[in-house]
Amino acid sequence: MSHDNPSHASPDPSAVGDHESVYDGLLGGDPSQWAFGTATYEPQGEDPLAGVDTTVPDGVDAAALAAYCLMLGDDALVMSHRLSEWCSRAPDLEDDIALANIALDLLGQARLLLARAAAADPGVVPVLPEDSPVPDEDALAYFREAAEFRNVRLVEVPHGDFAHVVCRLLLFTVARLEVFTRLARSLDPVLAAVAAKGVKELTYHRDYAGRWCVTLAQGTEESRRRLLAALEVLWPLGAELVAPTDVESRMAEAGVGVDPAAVADAVDGVLDLVLAESELERPADRPLGGVNGRTGRDGLHSEALGLVLAEMQVVARAHPAGRW
Amino acid sequence: MSPGFEARAWGALALQPPAAARARAVAATVTDPEMPMLTLEDLGVLRDVTVDEGGVVVAITPTYSGCPAMATMRDDLVHRLRDAGFEDVRVRVELHPAWSSDWITDRGRATLAAHGMSPPGPASRPGGPVPLSLLPRRRAISCPRCGSGEVELTSEFGPTACKALYRCLTCREPFEHVKEI
């Protein structure tokens, strides 16, 4: 074949004019479909609550509401981060995708809840330089210290094997789904809406964890051994999810929150169903103690949280004026 | 009252419905960034378009809490409406009621199927305790390529938050199913 007469003309980069880009074709001729770096206008802020009425309902303590939102938001944020660490490490591609999807849903819940906390009481947001472009929910996620996080310790403890993440997810989603089902009737319309949406997502998450629990328990001797080991380690951490703190009790009394103690029986009922289907004995209840009565909800964490945050926050803290 | 004022007032009133309708029509052409064959209207994400003195206000709702496409949808709406001559465009988030796959229009369902994706069945009604389901969810769906009803669930989680993975046992092709929520 002659090189002088190619059957297909090859692209000539030098033919690109001053106002053209070799990437123009990617836009498909639709000028509203811009690619990164080609935007000709300032994108709007990405406030997840843009236009949502975030007025705190009459008679509700705004500081307590914010603290309550941080508890639910931090649970989701840290759990999401832990799940995302599984990406590329699950037994197969489908489970990689499943865990990443669950992590994404929880990250979305965390974002809404942290934004709701900031809107209820701006005092909870870490103070950043005045010209900082960091939105409030990001400031809460990336610029608080471990002792300011209000998550339960279940979501922060180090990873084990796949049975461990299944077990952690089961304990977490069973309790969260019971809380969110009731929270959908919150007197705070924002919290009610976030919860109603979360219920739909958590239903898929809980089914996933429950099915894997049965599969591992009824699988091979090895998978059952691993599941039992995970239950042994994690069961004492589950109790914190249904142990009420002062903030949760007050929010429940105000009709805004859910008393976790009030969902304890429902949580037990669902866990018993999964255990029965798995032909597993219910582990003995011996809740992991706190220090002087303080647990994760009070900011008393295991050292694992510090390591989680170090990785999660490092980029944001290195570039506090960064735009993403 | 001067006739000029009255005329202007009536003119402003008369202008209102067509401007809102036009804005609505423009917003309805914006597509979903992850399923570009679907418009935001067909997906049920576009909730409201109004026009007031301040400009156009578009309300959208996320499909899933962590939907990463929200920012792009917002930017695309602003861009498309500005191109159509609406200078001041605001996009607000509507969280209530939560999006349901039931809101995907009939045209949207037909478009999904035409693009090899299985449209969602009816979503369960919200409210009350949520039953635990330890067996794979049963769905009466068929392969969008060959029409066979012999299909098998691969995973309840797919390439985007809103999809599950299936494979057809007849033509052996994998396909995506938009989940019921």
What's the arrangement of secondary structure elements?
The complex is a heterodimer of chains A (324) and B (181).
Chain A: H1 62-84, H2 93-120, H3 136-142, H4 162-183, H5 189-217, H6 221-238, H7 246-253, H8 264-277, H9 303-318
Chain B: H1 3-27, H2 40-43, E1 46-52, E2 55-60, H3 70-83, E3 89-93, H4 106-114, E4 117-118, E5 151-155, E6 163-168, E7 174-178
Parallel strand pairs in B: 2-3, 4-7
Antiparallel strand pairs in B: 1-2, 5-6, 6-7
Q: Given the structure, what is the number of helices of chain A? A: 9
Largest sheet of chain B: 4 strands, mixed
- Helix/strand/pairing class of chain B, anyone? alpha/beta
Portion in helices of chain A: 40-55%
Please report the first level of CATH classification, the CATH class of the largest domain in chain B.
Alpha Beta
What is the typical, i.e. mean, pLDDT of chain B? 89
Shape of chain B: elongated
Order of helices and strands of chain B: HHEEHEHEEEE
What is the rounded distance between the termini of chain A?
A: 49 Å
Oligomer: heterodimer
Would you kindly provide a written description of the structure presented here, covering whatever features stand out?
The complex is a heterodimer of chains A (324) and B (181). Chain A has helices spanning 62-84, 93-120, 136-142, 162-183, 189-217, 221-238, 246-253, 264-277, 303-318. Chain A is an all-alpha fold and 324 residues long. Chain A has a single domain, classed as Up-down Bundle (Ferritin). The longest helix of chain A has 29 residues, at 189-217. Chain A is globular and about 60 Å long. Chain B folds into two domains: 7-101, 2-Layer Sandwich (GMP Synthetase, Chain A, domain 3); 138-181, no CATH class. Chain B is built from four helices and seven strands, in the order ααββαβαββββ. In chain B, strand 6 and strand 7 form a beta hairpin. The radius of gyration of chain B is 21 Å and the shape is elongated. Classes of the chains: A mainly alpha (324), B alpha/beta (181).
